[in-house]
Amino acid sequence: MRRLALIPLLLPLPALAGLDEVATDHALPRYEALAQSTETLAATAATDCRGEATLAAYTAAFDDWMGVSHIQFGPIEDLNLSLAIAYWPDPKNRTGKALRGLIADADPVVNEAEDYRDVSIAAQGFYALERLLYDDSLPQGDYTCALTAAVARGLADTSAMLATAWVDYAGTLTQPGPDNPVYPTGADATRKVYTALLSGLEFTRDQRLGRPLGTFDRPRPNRAEAQLSGRSQRNVVLSLAALEDLALALADAPIPQSQAAFDRARARAASLDDPVLAGVADPMARFRIEALQQDLRDIQTELATELGAALGVSAGFNSMDGD
Amino acid sequence: MNLKSLAILGTTALTAIPAWAATSKTDVLTTYADIAHAGYEDSLTSAKALQSAVDALIAEPSAQALQAARQAWLEARVPYQQTEVYRFGNAIVDDWEGKVNAWPLDEGLIDYVDPTYGGATEENEYAALNVIANPTFTLSGEEIDATDITPELLEGALHEADEVESNVATGYHAVEFLLWGQDLNGTDYGAGNRPWTDYATGDDCTNGNCDRRGDYLKAATDLLVSDLEWMTAQWAEGGEARSTVLSDEDAGISAMLTGMGSLSYGEQAGERMKLGVMLNDPEEEHDCFSDNTFNSHFYDAMGVRNVYLGSYTRIDGTVVSGASLSELVAEADPAVDEELKAKLDATMIEMSEMKTAAEAGFSYDMMLARGNDAGEALIMGAVNALVDQTASIERAVSALGANQIDFEGSDSLDNPDAVFQ
What ipTM does this complex have? Predict the structure, then answer.
């Protein structure tokens, strides 16, 4: 016993700050919620096609996805499932082309859930489903309904897989140490979560807001996320709420400055009153959206000084860091 | 182009290196700059060979002359791809890179395309502009006179026209398109198959406007040469890129690690490799016209390893080497250095397996086909190795005590103090 007690003095103290809370209070219940609401969505779409009940189930499931979409580490990365759930941005309209291709061929791949996993990720997940449910220019009919059901089923299966995998992975994340091949130190695990937090902020700032903003002379209102379903603003609000929850879970001390910065951003995002961010093309409304981008920068700054410094970690590399 | 990187802030002292450290950071950075200079100089040399081959093709069009130009292009990619690791982390490279290696492109901007390509898109009004067939046109409300196709026209009016990134009018991939044409084989074997007669004179000319096509190819190649001349000079003694990395040791070391990690992970593993597999889309190939994608990936990965080990083998076989980042990390934490070296080697083995299969006839676009498990395994093997090495790069960052990283878009490279104000 005496010798064991010495070990912590010989090893650097693991930075376990908040990892338990991140797993238990944040990730696990949120993945569980996503698994349930996507299951409801799949069951509804199988009979209701693109009726009102499916649209409501879609809204609920997408809301739950916004609760975890920033978690780009762990099972979602290991199993390569992120893009199969959410392929956006899509500047080349790969989703539209992939869906039209399947419909034109009446591709029988929709008949087996197992097979459907092999199709282009552009024809899977929330954004493909959005096209199927809200884009009236797509040819309608039995095949399109079968396709809708297949996409919804795939989403439910994928979400269930993630919820299950997280139960094991929670152990990996919360028990760093020399015997843990993924996180040999607490800092490795903490850095992973911290990176996801900052990457999530960056994604909302540069993609959800930055893409439609374009430049002052050339705003791009039709590049806003999830426009067809009218969720562009809603996704910004929900992502901020999810990220704040993650920051609070990770912190092992109060982070009042960061919280205040989150509050400002959330208040501004909620007050935009602009579901599809069409305001990017209007000088006055645009100003408010640009100010929101600045709010997000401020959150990053506060987190770096208040949370990152306290945890002794810096952000690692970002999976969305491509061109 | 946008600085797509996590810049590791240079304001934090790299304090973890013990006082007795034998390796000088200035020496490590000097090696880094020397390798950059050699790499861009090699890229320039091989781009000039491409330029000669293009001149020969235009002067006397033939199947042989087109083939020689294609071969010169392929050879030119070998040194250039090894410099890509300099892009992330060095603002001067990143700001310039878009003119030279931008991708993917809406090639209909430049020349004729197959009907399946479609026309203008919601995202890009000019996706099918076809400059070669149209001496005058309107662009974002401005009348453009393209009667003479010059380097100035390409880099001024056309490149990223209407602020759309896929309007790529210049660089390696524009030249690649002009040499190979569209690859219409989908996920079957075969690259683009542009006939040499697209450059023929008089009645032999196919697909129209052969003279303008030749003018475009020449202008794009000349521009590539002058761009590479410029970047080579930036890394020479007294050049801006070299002085920048040497002016602040800690920021310089951070730039090295940022370049390695950002290229490995978000850019290469994610955007260039994994996305193509998951979309089953050969248009997502980095060198989609020539089917040279496997080499682009291979030499990108080799560039990351070069920077870490402080050694680059030039196109004439001579070696540029010196004090390395590896030695610096080893002094801070030998285990992390061993781990990172092993992972860089593992990546090269995975990349080699992919390259070997591609060279044996299992082309990269075939690997991308829906349900092609063997192809997916080859590509994902390399992707996973890149992801794995990124984790070790992060550990190297920690070992060196560079404990503050910032994100792309927060102006950190331009203004490293901004985050702490």
Answer: 0.80
